[in-house]
């Protein structure tokens, strides 16, 4: 099997087909309950996309590089809380504090991971726990109310019927990162350190600097997402649970990113996040019972696994390579 | 062991942390009391059983399960629903359900090399969906009261503590002395080499996952007995608690290294630290944050040390 066929199969076909299937399901579901699709459904789906996107984008980017930044969920919660804490009068001040904090947290983790060649999952699980603790400490364990109604009204006001400043900011970040990765060496370098880090290092990729930059960006992006959510909901929840994190992983996988690293793009992540948002929206407007959502996501992920199945042999090879690589890195 | 290894920076960090924790514990009023010791042990046992099970799949190279809480919740629901048939049949059914849930995932990971992280996310969704579908989203209450036997406290110590100790010992013996146990380490260390060496790699992986199912379902039964009722959310934060315990104990996330005893130490360390913070009147948030910092310190030290040994 040639390399480009493998890439065509998963990276492009998976998000593409998922998007088409989901859009068809959307229309069919609407027809089945005898309800016409209004622009409001699109607006709602995009609001869902805004909520999920800035978890899926940072997490997915680290997955492309063969890492796994679970702390994004913690940064998301802390950023929301900081925005409420510091942004009651000046929303931008709150967002600024949150984003700087997120970037610093990310830079610290990236530094640890690069300096000591640590596997990222244990480090980011520990950070996730710390961040939830700090968030809960700041709020006293309670949900905090954001009273700046002007800011709330601003981020959620409809723009061109379908969009809101919140979803537009999210989209803009996806597009910006997508363009940067497509038109600079960064995109291929990220995939290179995800695919074969030793080879990437040997070919002159500055892996350590790239990792620190990656985790810094991951923290900052997640912080933007958390801030926007708090402003939109006019409150910050100290413990959002792991459901948003899991949905972000699902979005990344549907977007064609592989957990072994080395595969995926910001465009795929964009489609993945939109697909998950649309699926959630279908369940909501068709008033299906909650467990259907769970089964739908389980089914979708099974399809992701099945799509990858013809490449099991190749995946085994990649898995073994990655493990051997890890063995030598340690 | 050379002198340099004896005083390596990692050991110094661990020693400092241990000394600080011991001093803080010793100077905390109420810490060195029998009741407090019992409280620590009781809070250890359920998460401990989950973490023991997780140790098997981490060592065999399957990273972690992100469905620990959901798997245990399903077993807890089954256990309570089956109470009307008597305690022993209910226990057997629960164990079978746990082993089947773990074993099926083991088959997928062992034979098809499916990524365990994706797989366990699927499992978490599927179990949540199916459990809600079957139970109609309502709380499962006990259909008999045989389960109360599990809440016994012989000698003032919860039965679950004795069971946890026995399971820890058994796990350690299996991992250290049985052929399957040694094979688990080999497969985790280098799956390709294990395959080349002719080991039944897939069967070893299935065994490890079935062990996870077995150990976590014992924990789930005690969880059910404590709560006397169960929903799919009864597992709470068990997924991450178990991962934190395994990692804090020093089992390597890359597989091939670790032990049941290390996991016991990890669980106890987290319980002791949580307990001291509670006694000293820290807020819940501060408790979680300090716990996280200590986990981070241990993870960094342990993984750096694992790297040194490997080199």
Summarize the structure.
The complex is a heterodimer of chains A (330) and B (311). Chain A has 330 residues and is mainly α.
How are the SSEs ordered, and which strands pair?
The complex is a heterodimer of chains A (330) and B (311).
Chain A: H1 3-32, H2 39-64, H3 72-86, H4 91-115, H5 120-139, E1 144-145, H6 149-156, H7 165-183, H8 185-195, H9 197-202, H10 207-233, E2 235-236, H11 243-254, H12 266-285, H13 290-308, H14 312-329
Chain B: H1 3-6, H2 9-26, H3 34-59, H4 68-81, H5 87-112, H6 116-135, E1 140-141, H7 159-177, H8 179-189, H9 191-196, H10 201-227, E2 229-230, H11 238-249, H12 260-279, H13 284-310
Antiparallel strand pairs in B: 1-2
Structural class category of chain A: mainly alpha
The total of helices of chain A stands at 14
Order of helices and strands of chain B: HHHHHHEHHHHEHHH
Anisotropy-based shape of chain A: globular
Average pLDDT of chain A, rounded to a whole number, is 88
Structural class of chain B, by secondary structure, is mainly alpha
């Amino acid at each position: 099997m040639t390399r480009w066929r493998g890439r065509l199969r998963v990276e492009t076909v998976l998000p593409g087909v998922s998007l088409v299937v989901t859009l068809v399901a959307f229309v069919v579901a609407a027809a089945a309950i005898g309800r016409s699709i209004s622009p409001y459904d699109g607006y709602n789906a995009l609001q869902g996309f805004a909520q999920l996107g800035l978890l899926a984008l940072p997490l997915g980017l680290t997955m492309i590089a063969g890492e796994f930044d679970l702390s994004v969920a913690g940064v998301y919660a802390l950023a929301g809380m900081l925005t409420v804490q510091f942004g009651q009068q000046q929303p931008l001040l709150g967002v600024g504090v949150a984003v700087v904090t997120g970037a610093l947290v990310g830079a610290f983790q990236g530094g640890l991971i690069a300096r000591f060649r640590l596997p990222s999952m244990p480090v980011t699980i520990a950070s996730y726990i710390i961040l939830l603790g700090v968030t809960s400490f700041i709020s006293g364990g309670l949900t905090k109310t954001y009273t700046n109604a002007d800011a709330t009204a601003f981020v959620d006001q409809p723009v061109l019927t379908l969009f809101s400043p919140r979803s537009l900011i999210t989209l803009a970040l996806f597009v910006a990162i997508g363009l940067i990765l497509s038109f600079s060496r960064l995109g291929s370098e990220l995939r290179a350190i995800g695919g074969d880090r030793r080879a990437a290092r040997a070919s002159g990729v500055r892996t350590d600097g790239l990792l620190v930059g990656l985790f810094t960006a991951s923290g900052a992006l997640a912080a933007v997402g958390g801030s926007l959510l708090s402003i939109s909901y006019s409150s910050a929840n100290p413990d959002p649970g792991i459901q948003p994190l899991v949905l972000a992983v699902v979005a990344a996988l549907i977007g064609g990113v592989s957990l072994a690293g080395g595969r995926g793009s910001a465009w795929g992540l964009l489609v993945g996040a939109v697909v998950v948002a649309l699926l959630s929206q279908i369940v909501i407007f068709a008033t299906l019972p909650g467990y259907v959502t769970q089964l739908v996501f389980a089914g979708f992920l099974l399809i992701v696994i099945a799509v990858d199945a013809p490449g099991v042999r190749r995946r085994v090879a990649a898995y073994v390579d990655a493990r051997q690589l890890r063995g030598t890195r340690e | 062991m050379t002198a340099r290894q004896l005083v390596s920076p990692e050991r110094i960090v661990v020693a400092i942390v241990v000394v600080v924790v011991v001093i803080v514990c010793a100077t905390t009023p109420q810490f060195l009391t029998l009741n407090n010791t019992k409280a620590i042990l009781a809070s250890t046992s359920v998460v401990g059983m989950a973490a023991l099970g997780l140790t098997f799949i981490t060592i065999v190279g399957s990273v972690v399960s992100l469905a620990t809480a959901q798997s245990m919740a399903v077993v807890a629901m089954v256990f309570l629903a089956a109470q009307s048939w008597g305690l022993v049949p209910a226990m057997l059914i629960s164990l079978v359900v746990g082993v089947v849930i773990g074993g099926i995932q083991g088959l997928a990971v062992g034979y098809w090399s499916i990524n365990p992280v994706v797989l366990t996310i699927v499992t978490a969704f599927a179990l949540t969906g199916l459990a809600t579908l079957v139970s109609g989203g309502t709380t499962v209450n006990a259909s008999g009261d045989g389960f109360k036997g599990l809440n016994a406290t012989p000698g003032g110590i919860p039965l679950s503590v004795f069971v946890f100790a026995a399971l820890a010992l058994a796990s350690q013996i299996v991992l250290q002395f049985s052929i399957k146990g040694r094979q688990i380490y080999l497969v985790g260390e280098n799956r390709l080499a294990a395959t080349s060496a002719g080991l039944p790699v897939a069967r070893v992986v299935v065994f490890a996952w079935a062990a996870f199912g077995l150990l976590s379902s014992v924990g789930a039964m005690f969880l059910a007995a404590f709560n006397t009722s169960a929903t799919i959310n009864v597992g709470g934060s068990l997924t991450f608690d178990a991962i934190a315990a395994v990692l804090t104990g020093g089992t390597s996330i890359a597989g091939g290294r670790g032990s049941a005893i290390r996991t016991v130490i990890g669980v106890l360390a987290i319980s002791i630290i949580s307990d001291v913070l509670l006694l000293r009147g820290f807020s819940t948030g501060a408790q979680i944050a300090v716990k996280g910092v200590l986990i981070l310190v241990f993870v960094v030290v342990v993984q750096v040390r694992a790297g040194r040994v490997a080199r």
